[in-house]
Design a protein that fits this description.
A 4-stranded antiparallel sheet has the order 5-6-4-7. The chain has 492 residues and is of the alpha+beta class. The chain is built from 16 helices and 11 strands. The longest helix has 26 residues. Helix 2 packs across helix 5 and helix 2 crosses helix 8.
Length: 492
């Protein structure tokens, strides 16, 4: 006889009942023939279609507890109090309270400053409980944390219209040396004095390419320094941005950073121990203040870690920027056409007459097998910085008004906003020659960004120039254009 599952046989016995009320503790597998449960109830775990979705595991935290404690301590450093006027004012107001309340700030107020430049997002922000655990585990000698029975008043810290009022938690934190904060000499520092304690670090090992990682790396190198027992030895870490980075971009460590130390002794120690011009193997002597067998020292030696005073780094940076600008100017000058005098009819040597009698080599002719259209690329410069593609297309199309060529001869305007130059892809070499001849015969400038007609240039204005790009430069340009676009240009 056919095998009947136990739960199915039980259901057959209960067919006479008017209503079927399942037991609360019955979690037998649903038969394969049933596509939907007969009653709403807890999901069952089965390999069939009724399988309940498994809960996704929680995302791995961006920072561990030690890194969290480092960021919170950094947000309450002497440098942070100096540079953040709001934090300094709140701290000074708190220090006027009774002794048992003096110096305490809401932990959530400090957390926003600790993680604001990390751009973690609300979903990656650690909770107050995690931060308190991290502080008590790794920063108990620097910060003191207490829990309040009732949360501190939100109106004392945030305006009524700000949503942060509801985020004030029940924890408060203060520095262990709160009683001497008002007498700290760094309160009267200026930017130059902080720069005198700032070191440029290069070739930082890859495993330390975060702000907490750089601090752990630096503390490891200075762990044997006599004055490394300072409450907060690392005051600030700055990651120099790339010149193309946007203001809202999260800074990324590319192997170098600017690190501000708490005193001159630490500053001199790190510079003397890891000078800019040094062999790859560090000196194995205790008088340098290094931990010989520490992991940080071994990694620093392995990757060629070196340091430089910030003042020297500023000078090198200025030299680099000047050299970079020189190269850009040289490349721009190399692209300019040679200056021939229009009324020069005198030949100096017979060789010049002979050269004129030799016909010029024929240009490459575009065929269906050509990799790109030859002689159809024009480079224009001295454009208005606030112009756009539509305006430029209309401006350069004026070159075909008095020509029998198709006025819609500009296939594409390759222009980036904010630049004073662009590339023009023309429909044919004849269009390119006509456009260049037009702008070479008459001087035109844009009076404003939306000027698509042009005007005569003033005494200090540079006229728009155009030249046909050929040879290697033309080949390099078209290599960066997608294959499909190149093929369409050739077919035209």
């Amino acid at each position: 006889f056919a095998f009947i599952p136990r739960n199915v046989s039980k259901d057959r016995k209960q067919q006479g009942n008017s209503a079927h009320v399942p037991s609360s503790n019955s979690f037998e597998p649903i038969p394969a023939i049933e596509r939907e449960p007969a009653y709403p109830g807890p999901s069952v775990i089965d390999k069939g279609k009724g399988k309940a979705p498994e809960p996704t595991p929680s995302a791995k935290p961006l920072y561990n507890e030690k890194d969290i404690s480092i960021l919170v301590v950094l947000a309450f450093s002497d440098y942070a109090l100096w540079v953040d006027s709001d934090l300094r004012r709140k701290t000074e107001e708190s220090l006027q309270s009774e002794e048992h309340d003096a110096g305490f700030l809401p932990l959530s107020f400090l957390m926003r400053r600790a993680f604001v430049r990390e751009n973690l997002g609300q979903e990656n922000m650690p909770t107050e409980a995690n931060v308190v655990k991290a502080i008590r585990t790794y920063a108990g000698d620097v910060l003191e944390v207490r829990m309040l029975v009732s949360a501190p008043s939100a109106s004392a810290w945030y305006p009524s219209w700000k949503p942060e009022r509801n985020s004030v938690g029940g924890y408060e934190v203060r520095r262990k040396d709160w009683s001497t904060l008002l007498d700290n000499v760094t309160r009267e520092f200026n930017r130059g004095q902080w720069d005198e304690r700032t070191v440029y670090m290069e070739n930082i090992p890859p495993q330390y390419h975060t702000i907490p990682g750089i601090i752990r790396f630096t503390q490891g190198l200075l762990s044997r320094c006599p004055v490394s027992s300072t409450l907060i030895p690392i005051q600030n870490v700055t990651l120099p941005p790339h010149h193309l980075d946007k203001p809202e971009d999260r800074p990324k460590c590319k192997g170098f950073a600017l690190v501000t130390l708490s005193n001159a002794e630490l500053y001199r120690n790190i510079l003397e121990s890891w000078p800019w011009n040094r062999p790859f193997q560090p000196s194995r002597s205790d008088d340098l203040g290094l931990t010989e067998d520490s992991l940080e020292t071994k990694e620093a030696s392995k990757f060629g870690f070196r340091t430089l005073p910030k003042a020297h780094w500023d000078n090198l940076n200025q030299e680099y920027l000047a050299y970079r600008q020189t190269l850009i100017d040289e490349l721009a000058d190399a692209d300019e056409l040679p200056d021939f005098k229009a009324d020069s009819d005198v030949r100096d040597t017979p060789s010049e007459i002979l050269e004129d009698s030799i016909p010029a080599p024929p240009r490459n002719v575009t065929t269906m097998s050509s990799p790109y259209p030859f002689g159809c690329l024009v480079f224009a410069r001295n454009l208005h910085l606030e112009t756009n593609k539509t305006t430029l297309r209309a401006l350069f199309a004026t070159a075909f008004k008095s020509s029998p060529l198709d006025p819609a001869g500009i296939d594409y305007v390759d222009f980036n906003k904010g630049m004073d130059s662009c590339y023009l892809r023309l429909a044919s070499p004849e269009h390119a020659c006509t456009l260049v001849d037009c702008f070479s015969s008459q001087a035109i400038v844009q009076s404003h960004g939306l000027d698509d007609i042009g005007k005569s240039p003033g005494a200090s204005e540079k006229a728009i120039t155009a030249e046909i790009i050929e040879g290697k430069k033309e080949e390099v340009y078209w290599e960066k254009v997608p294959e499909k676009v190149r093929r369409q240009a050739v077919e035209k």
